[in-house]
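Thread amino acids onto this structure.
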């Protein structure tokens, strides 16, 4: 596979959505301009079943390296997921069982495949699992890896410092996580690792191990995290209800992007779309209304994951439902009877009964034919067909 050395394209790859490059942007640019094919990877621990837009920044960057002709690797941390990454955590992370990890993996490739072309025959994408080397590592080798770091280095991490001040426990196995993630770079023979700024410590641990064990350089690229520029809150927080999953329906995805604060528009355009930067600047000049600009953003993002036709349908649904205050023509249909809350959970319209209780408390469940809010927790659906509005954006017809 011939590697592209076009200076403009390399500059764009090393600038857009980039927080920092180790050891330097100039050093990496020099290697990329030489035409050498690099082994570039991203590691992801399958600690949940969903991939959201916050992850997409890294995969879009990985795709760009692939387009330049470099060898890319998606590393699944099926072993490390069972330990738990302490990064950005103020308490011990829940350890997952092998079965939980396996279940979480089921939809991962499909979701990531909306960005990365796993069917590329000319430059095949490698899919790797770190249990292949970590599960078999003898304790003597673990001790050897540990000798490359000091306890002071580990304790410098912000989350550990905070736990010490709050008198919260730090467990020994948490110190081994950077060693394991670091050794992934050695096992893969990686030249470049991509990750969010919250992974900087772990990725640099890999750089140290590659230098010490293989006597070569490993570049580390940290990408910008999606966050509100004013509040500094993460844009894709599941706990705050702001996450946009890659496997969500076009209508739900479009609606969630429209619900984003106006100040988030610029970063979402830069980090989550394929539009050129000069095109984004032109779009921002052409649009005078933030809502219309956000509609363009929502359309571009939905188009990536569901195609142009479904993006247009989602846009039309939004206009009809929220601007014209009408019920959309295309509504999800489910069959069943009994408790409405349980039926919605079973059909994955909502995540849990706790979410059902919150929606009922907020008056966010409405039976449109009766024009009334559902205010009873054990609300039972009647024999007749009914259309319900669930939250702000979702409509369901129950037969």
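Threaded sequence (399 positions):
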């Amino acid at each position: 596979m011939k590697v592209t050395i076009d200076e403009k394209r390399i500059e764009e790859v090393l600038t857009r959505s980039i927080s920092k490059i180790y050891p330097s942007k100039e050093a990496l640019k020099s290697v990329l301009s030489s035409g050498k094919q690099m082994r570039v990877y991203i590691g992801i621990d399958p600690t949940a079943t969903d991939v959201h837009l916050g992850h997409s920044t890294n995969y879009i960057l990985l795709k760009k390296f692939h387009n330049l002709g470099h060898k890319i690797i998606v590393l699944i941390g099926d072993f490390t997921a069972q330990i738990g990454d302490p990064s950005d955590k103020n308490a011990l992370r829940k350890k997952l069982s092998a079965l939980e990890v396996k279940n979480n993996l089921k939809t991962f490739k499909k979701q990531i495949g909306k960005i990365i072309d796993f069917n590329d025959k000319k430059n095949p994408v490698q899919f790797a699992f770190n249990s292949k080397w970590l599960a078999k590592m003898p304790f003597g080798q673990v001790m050897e890896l540990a000798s490359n770091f000091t306890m002071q280095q580990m304790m410098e991490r912000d989350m550990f410092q905070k736990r010490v001040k709050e008198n919260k426990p730090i467990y020994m196995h948490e110190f081994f996580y950077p060693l394991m993630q670091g050794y992934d770079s050695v096992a893969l023979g990686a030249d470049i690792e991509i990750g969010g700024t919250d992974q900087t410590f772990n990725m640099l641990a890999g750089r140290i191990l590659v230098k010490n064990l293989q006597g070569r350089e490993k570049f580390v690229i940290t990408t910008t995290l999606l966050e509100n520029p004013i509040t500094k809150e993460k844009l894709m927080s599941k706990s705050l209800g702001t996450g946009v999953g890659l496997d969500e329906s076009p209508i739900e995805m479009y609606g969630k992007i429209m619900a984003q604060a106006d100040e988030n528009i610029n970063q979402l355009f830069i980090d989550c779309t394929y539009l050129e930067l000069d095109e984004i600047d032109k779009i921002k000049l052409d649009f005078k209304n933030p809502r219309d600009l956000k509609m363009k953003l929502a359309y571009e993002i939905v188009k990536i994951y569901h195609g142009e036709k479904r993006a247009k349908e989602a846009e039309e649904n939004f206009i009809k439902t929220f601007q014209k205050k009408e019920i959309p023509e295309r509504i999800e249909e489910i069959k069943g009877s009994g408790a409405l809350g349980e039926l919605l959970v079973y059909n994955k319209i909502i995540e849990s009964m706790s979410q059902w209780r919150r929606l009922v408390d907020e008056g966010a469940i409405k039976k449109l034919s009766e024009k009334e809010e559902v205010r009873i927790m054990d609300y039972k659906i009647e024999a007749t067909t009914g259309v319900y509005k669930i939250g702000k954006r979702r409509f369901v017809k129950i037969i």
